[in-house]
Every structure is written in structure tokens, then in C-alpha cells.
Write a structure and sequence with these properties.
CATH topology: TIM Barrel
Number of helices: 12
Number of strands: 11
Distance between the termini: 23 Å
Helix content: 40-55%
Order of helices and strands: HEHEEEHHEHHEHEEHEHEHEHH
Shape: globular
Radius of gyration: 17 Å
CATH architecture: Alpha-Beta Barrel
Length: 278
């Protein structure tokens, strides 16, 4: 892990200084439409009377989302059908950065590669972005991205899983800047009724092998109690499907621009990480 915590890592450290885990919320740009998705991202960043997420993970919809569960796939497919484009990702990042929250993006590598790696890094940084989470790019195949992220001061957030070997964890954390994304369960994304029993063990392995590494845990958290549980041992709690479900429900009810349910879930999650005193 780079000695530089980067913009995204500093958000996790700021939460740690408050004695809690950071909260990271994932939303795809373009669902249910681009303007409403930007409003949703601003909404989860919190309001004067209610804390929100510390960081927004802006999802870029992709035509072959092999790692996404059904909730994220449905929202992403809808966004693509309604014409979302890569330039909208930069607009979303700019909207999040304007709130003061850190903005990272979860994106499949082909989107970056087709745009042009250095050009993407340049435009992402110019929009105020902190870095990328690249679920289908491993460090040993990431030389162009490592060079571009270094050139433009962006964080590199790679993934490790319960199946990762000790050697893979060491090489992955060494390549990261900011923090490492620990996938708490094997399989695709999606909210679950209970958190993964593998998560604490995976985080403990990361800390033993790379003591200075900041660790975010994702895949499965759906409510404040689970956020409190994960936040007791991780540096960041990552939530996606539970947020998107509220927006799908609003669209199904004929009120796609209604963010009331989204705000309620974020309040519960934000309360949860604040109960996870560390």
C-alpha cells in the first residue's frame, strides 16, 4: 500500500478519528435517469440535520456486468437503455465532489480502456474524482492504469476475496493507493439477511499481512445493524443494493424521482456505523 492514503483513504481516516467506520454508498449513474441519479448521489451525502455517506461509489453501467447481482443489473440495464454515457460518470463525480464527499467509481475495465486510459484518468481527476475501484482488473495486468493513476494523482482500489492467497493479498495491497476492497462473500453483489462470516477473518488476514492497509468491506450489508457489525472490524462499510432497491421500488410505484426511501435507508446506515464504536 502506498504511504499516501490518497483522497479516498483520507475519508476513511477522518471517520476513524471519530471512532467509527466510514460509510460508502454505491449508486449507478443514469438510473432512473441522469438528473435523478445525480440528485440521489447528492441526497446520500447527507443534509444539515442528518449525516450521510462519507464517500460515494459511482457505478458506471456496463453491458456485461458479470459481477453485479440482479438489483444492480436491473438498474444498470435500465440506465443503458435510457442512454447513459461515460461523460455522465464525470458529471456524477463532479456533483458528489461539490458536496464535500469523496467520489470514487466502480467500473469495468473495458470502459476505461475504450475511452483511453490516460484520457479517462485525466477527465476523472479534473471532475474531482478520488480514484477507481476496478473489479475485473488485477494489479499484475494493471501497468497502464498504475501509470495513469500516478500521473493524475488518483487512488487505485483493487479487490481481495476470502479465496485470495496470502501472496495475492500482499501483492494486491502493495498495488493499492487509498484502501483495499474486501469482498466479504463469494459471488455477485446483493443485499443479504446476514453479513458474511468470512468477513472478519478476511480483514484479520489483511491486517496481519499488510498492517497499514485501510480495508473497506462490501457485498451484503443492507441495514444499520449490519453496518454496525461490519463497522466494528472494518475501516469502511460499503452498501449498494440496499440503496438501489429503494429507487427501484419508487419507480415501480410510479414515482421514480421520490428519494424518501433512499434517504431513510441512508439515515439508518449512517446511524449504524456511528454505533460501531471502535
Amino acid at each position: 500500500m502506498s504511504a499516501d492514503a490518497g483522497i479516498s483513504g483520507r475519508a476513511l481516516l477522518a471517520a476513524r478519528e471519530q471512532g467509527r467506520a466510514a460509510l460508502i454508498g454505491y449508486l449507478p449513474v443514469g438510473y432512473p435517469d441522469v438528473p435523478t441519479s445525480l440528485d440521489a448521489m447528492r441526497a446520500i451525502c447527507g443534509e444539515a440535520d442528518a449525516p450521510g455517506v462519507d464517500m460515494v461509489e459511482v457505478g458506471m453501467p456496463y453491458s456485461d456486468p458479470v459481477l453485479d447481482g440482479p438489483v444492480i443489473q436491473r438498474a444498470g440495464t435500465s440506465a443503458l437503455a435510457r442512454g447513459v454515457r461515460t461523460r455522465d460518470l464525470f458529471a456524477a463525480v463532479e456533483a458528489v465532489a461539490a458536496t464535500g464527499a469523496a467520489a470514487v467509481s466502480m467500473t469495468y475495465w473495458n470502459i476505461v480502456d475504450r475511452y483511453g486510459v490516460d484520457a479517462f484518468a485525466r477527465d476523472f481527476a479534473n471532475a474531482g474524482g478520488a480514484g477507481l475501484i476496478t473489479p475485473d482488473l488485477t494489479p499484475d495486468e494493471a501497468d497502464p492504469w498504475i501509470a495513469a493513476s500516478d500521473a493524475h494523482g488518483l487512488d487505485r482500489i483493487f479487490l481481495v476475496a476470502p479465496s485470495s492467497t496470502d501472496a495475492r493479498i500482499v501483492s494486491t495491497t502493495n498495488a493499492c493507493r487509498g484502501w483495499v476492497y474486501a469482498t466479504a462473500v463469494m459471488g455477485v453483489t446483493g443485499a443479504r439477511t446476514q453479513t458474511s462470516s468470512a468477513a472478519p477473518g478476511l480483514v484479520a488476514r489483511i491486517r496481519a499481512l499488510a498492517p497499514d492497509t485501510l480495508v473497506g468491506v462490501g457485498l451484503g450489508v443492507s441495514n444499520g445493524d449490519q453496518a454496525a457489525e461490519v463497522g466494528s472490524f472494518a475501516d469502511a462499510v460499503i452498501v449498494g443494493s440496499a440503496l438501489i432497491k429503494t429507487m427501484l421500488a419508487a419507480e415501480d410505484a410510479g414515482t421514480p424521482k421520490d428519494l424518501t426511501g433512499l434517504r431513510a435507508v441512508v439515515r439508518d446506515l449512517a446511524d449504524g456505523v456511528r454505533r460501531s464504536r471502535r
